[in-house]
Design goal:
The protein has 320 residues and is of the alpha/beta class. Helices cover 29% and strands 27% of the residues. Helix 3 crosses helix 4 and helix 3 packs across helix 9.
């Protein structure tokens, strides 16, 4: 089979398409024939060598894929060859024609969801669900600010918040992106580049502020976020590219909480609950991943560049 391999950490061009042995399932494992693989920003950090947890070299990147079950190992129940599935973790990497997975990380993909959409479920939707409902514990009627709502996690957060009865304020850096966020169900959409976006947000909330902020770029926004919270508000830090200076008095005055999260820290029990909820949302159509771009598997380096570009819209997927 063909797979993207990384033999050394570095720039995107360290990823090369190579021929490797076909994956074979062991007990409790499943081999998935990949029809689409999702690119997540964290994979660019891992590839570059700056991420805290580095895989042993060489390796194939990726955790999210969608396709059909190729074969199953001993002890696997509920899955059989030919089943449409999406993955939320792999053993051998998702940027490949075949991916070996633990059975617990393979989930049914409803017929109406395309493989490209299925490749956008794992990390983005699980991150958004965990941040909004398991960490922030948002409840219907609250107001959530989704910073950077045009990306994979942001779009997922808007859809999940809409389904749970929250008022949603999304931000985007381009008019095209903001229109896409509106189309996903955001109540209000702001341009986070505008000098007065904070003032407009406070006007939209009657001066109260928001109950929850999902923050994708904390090193830029966290200090400002603390001034936009309602009393008892929560910020969930999903992404950051460096340090940030804040005024603790802004948190004290609101008795606010700053929560950090990394999806890979989620317990198996919590992940099972997340994917049960996501599966129901996909089946009913309440959740519908937005695919921004599809690229051939060999173009993984270009995909890693694109996912980090400002204004990236929806999910970027690789097609073997």
């Amino acid at each position: 089979m063909k797979a993207i391999r990384v033999d050394e950490f570095g720039a995107p061009d360290v990823m090369r398409l190579e021929e490797v042995p076909d994956a074979q399932p062991g007990p409790g494992q499943v081999v998935v024939r990949v029809r689409a693989a999702g690119i997540n920003p964290v994979e660019t950090y891992i590839r570059s060598g700056v991420y805290a947890n580095k895989p042993p070299l060489p390796y194939t990147p990726g955790t999210d894929a969608a396709g059909t079950v190729e074969s199953v190992g001993d002890g696997v129940t509920g899955l059989k060859a030919g089943d449409r599935v999406y993955t939320a973790g792999t053993v051998t990497g998702a940027y490949a024609e075949l991916a070996l997975c633990e059975a617990a990380n393979v989930h049914p993909l409803p017929e109406q969801v395309t493989f490209a959409q299925g490749a956008g479920v794992g990390v983005p939707y699980a991150t958004a669900y965990r941040a909004l409902l398991q960490k922030a514990r948002a409840v219907p009627g609250e107001t959530v600010l989704v910073h950077g709502a045009t990306g994979g996690v942001g779009m997922a957060a808007v859809q999940i918040a809409r389904a749970h009865g929250l008022t949603i304020i999304g931000t985007g850096g381009t008019e095209r992106g903001r229109e896409a966020v509106r189309a996903q169900g955001a109540t209000h959409v702001l341009d986070h580049h505008a000098a007065d976006y904070a003032e407009r947000l406070m006007e939209l909330t009657g001066g109260r502020g928001v109950d929850v902020i999902l923050e994708m770029l904390a090193n830029v926004n966290l200090g400002k976020d603390l001034t936009l919270l309602a009393p008892g508000g929560r910020v969930v830090v999903i992404g950051s590219r460096g340090p940030v200076e804040i005024n603790p008095r802004d948190a004290m005055a609101r008795e606010a909480v700053v929560l950090g999260m990394v999806l890979f820290n989620t317990s198996p029990q919590e992940l099972a609950a997340v994917h049960a909820a996501l599966g129901a949302g996909l089946a009913t159509g309440v959740l519908s991943p937005v695919v921004g771009r599809e690229l051939p598997l060999a173009d993984a380096p270009r995909g890693h560049e694109a996912v980090m570009e400002a204004g990236a819209l929806g999910k970027i997927v690789l097609v073997p």
